[in-house]
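The records we work with from here on pair a chain with its fold. These numbers are not coordinates but entries in a learned vocabulary of local backbone shapes. To see the layout at work, look at the sequence and tokens printed below.
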Amino acid sequence: MFSDIIPIPEWVIFVIQLILGIAMLLCVIRIIMGPSLMDRIVGLDLLAALIMAQIVTLVLVTGFLSFLNVAVAIAVISFIATVALARYLEQSDDSES
């Protein structure tokens, strides 16, 4: 499915991708060097959001709307994973007490 999206100048797309790429790099650094497990979980959640933004940028470039389904799937999986990890950490804190 294709869409006639308002044309966006190429330099705007380049700036968007550059900012998202830098944010992804910083996010990966936080995931690797995070002082706690919670920092790593937040970093993974942010990385999923940045990947979704990159997919939306791809939709703007190509006009292929089916990529939005991929972004929604990533959002659902990311949400479920974050909730599951939070529950696991909550239960592990309760068992230590």
User: Anything to note?
Assistant: The two ends are 54 Å apart (CA to CA).
